[in-house]
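Hi all, posting the design record for the shared folder.

TITLE: backbone redesign
STEP: 1 of 1
STRUCTURE INPUT:
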């Protein structure tokens, strides 16, 4: 395997991730006025980049607070994430980046 191609892939991934953060962060800052909700929104988005997460896992990681709830609702209304499931133990809410 060529080490240069691995390096190129890592550089591309880093540049893409940087562009994602810059563009999304500007949108989030203009849409969400509460600083705490913006912080949670960016942290939630970054965790969803690695794959879908159950709401219970998000709340375990970031806390079961109104700011987390509002950040999730804002991200859904901004169409950055989508929610599936009915909520509850048998069909928990699942969030994923879109």
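Okay, here is what came back for every position:
SEQUENCE:
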């Amino acid at each position: 395997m060529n080490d240069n191609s691995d390096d190129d892939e890592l550089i591309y991934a880093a540049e893409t991730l940087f562009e994602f953060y810059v563009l999304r962060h500007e949108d989030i800052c203009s849409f969400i006025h509460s600083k705490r909700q913006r912080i949670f929104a960016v942290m939630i988005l970054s965790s969803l980049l690695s794959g879908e997460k159950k709401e219970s896992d998000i709340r375990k990681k970031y806390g079961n607070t109104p700011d987390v709830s509002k950040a999730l609702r804002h991200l859904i209304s901004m169409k950055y994430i989508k929610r599936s499931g009915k909520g509850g133990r048998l069909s928990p809410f699942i969030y994923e980046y879109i």
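COMMENT: The chain has a mean pLDDT of 85.
Let me know if anyone wants the other runs.
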